[in-house]
Specification:
Layout (H helix, E strand, L loop, with lengths): L1 E7 L3 H6 L2 H7 L4 E5 L10 H6 L3 E5 L9 E5 L5 E4 L12 E5 L4 E6 L6 H24 L3 E6 L23 H12 L2 E3 H5 L8 E2 L11 E2 L2 E6 L6 E6 L11 E5 L2
Parallel strand pairs: 1-2, 7-8
Antiparallel strand pairs: 1-14, 2-4, 3-4, 5-6, 6-7, 8-12, 9-12, 10-11, 13-14
Amino acid sequence: MLNIVSYNVNGIRSADKKGLFDWLRSESIDILCLQEVRAEENQIPEEKIKSLGYSFDLNPAQKRGYSGVAILSKIPPNQVTKDTFVSTLEGEGRIIRFDFSQFSVISLYMPSASNVQRLGFKFEFMHQFQSYVDGLKKEIPNLIICGDFNICHRAIDIHDPIRNQNVSGFLPKERAWLDDFINSGFIDTFRYKNPKPNNYTWWSYRTNARDRNLGWRIDYCMVSQNLKSHIHKAYISADAKHSDHCPTGVVLDI
């Protein structure tokens, strides 16, 4: 069994102070995809990571204290690729890919959108990412994409779908894009295994939202359709509180 987890840590240094690596030591995670690392190479607690038996690579953003993705893996990758799907979006620190002999894992940090300009950037990123993945599937049929998509897919994935219907992250066009992405050959592993509502991966720091479970499910572990029979379980670890997000994972029998 292979346990793969996605976690937006909202700053790895901050999460470290909140016990991230103590938590990781207590878990049986084979591959951990991190988003919003917000650190440079020399700011990563590399010794802690190595002491837990992980290979590690980081794709930081050019802008300091911004974005950044990483993958920790107990299986050494054959190849590591960073931000290559479109040159105009490089330097954002939003994509890293580990290639293994039987599959590839991507850690993805989709842009959020607080205004019209950022919404345009987000849609451009989404469009280019879809094209990148469409091409990648031709050479790598077993793809696992873990990350913060910054989109709730359906009403079941958000605590108040009516009031948030005009908020970025739950806009009809964003949700339609996620529909198309999944229909292009992927499985939302958590929803495939867990049909119940009130399961979220992000809560605002305001209005005591986490304690009240007023959340959004915007973090996903997506797998290629041909891995469907290999999905053993999928889960959300809402008790892990090192960030405004929590981990979500999938266990595959590969």
